[in-house]
Amino acid sequence: MRIDSHHHVWDLTVRPQDWIVGQAMQPLLRNFSLTDLRPLAASTAIDRTVIVQTVADPGETPELLQSAADDDFVAGVVGWLDLESPTLEMNLAAQLELPGAQKLVGIRDLAQYKDDSSWLARPQVIAGLQLLGQHGLTYDLLTVPPQLPAAIEAVQSCPEMLFVLDHLSKPRIASRVMQPWADQVRALSKLPNVACKVSGMFTEAEWDGWAVGDFRPYFDTLLNAFGPERLMFGSDWPVCTLAASYRQVIGTAEELTSDLSADEREQFWAGTATRFYRLER
What we know:
By secondary structure, the chain is of the alpha/beta class. The chain has helices at residues 34-43, 60-68, 88-95, 123-134, 148-157, 181-189, 212-226, 246-256, 262-276; strands at residues 3-7, 48-52, 74-79, 104-108, 138-141, 163-165, 194-198, 231-233. The longest helix has 15 residues, at 212-226.
């Protein structure tokens, strides 16, 4: 079993993707569907996937759940909710009644884009996280390095729920900057209820000039901090295609994990995602 724990789909005729801005991002301004991903996954021995939200729009999650409902290829959906909404509990209850809600395994808000670097540590946000945890949902942390201290505080405040750090928290790989990111992710890793996705690396590197060795210091830092039992593979398709093909993303992950034992690779490719998203249910 191999799981791609992080990819997206969108239809621009239904909903704009307002984060796709600038000339360099133009290749993403088209529709991407499960039909597009399926042959790529099959050719690289990916068995199942997790769809992750892209926009802060309450209409997106129902559509993702509907597309996943009767599709065994999709193991789970990470949807969106406004954690600071006064009607969060009602909004969550409505999502849990949607067609395909059995595939709702997590929630993500777009902390990366918040002006307040301490947003995740706000009391109202933490109260919202705790509500998600009461319903057995995982929370995806979409952060950049300056937001990691707040992420640590949020995870500490919710010891009974599970968290997944997306995209390594986007370290500056192109500039080969390691600190303070490395110390911060080590601090985060000391909390046993958080795992990390090895995803999103290619768009943080030189798009036209990356090499596998560019990623090695970052991957090794995570491996030493979290261990393979709390790392999971994610492609970040189709965003990754700005810098690498799906096959290149898979091949890079295979090379980075080639020295792991068979059991450790199983955790990286499937076990961690299965446990942290409760995909066995």
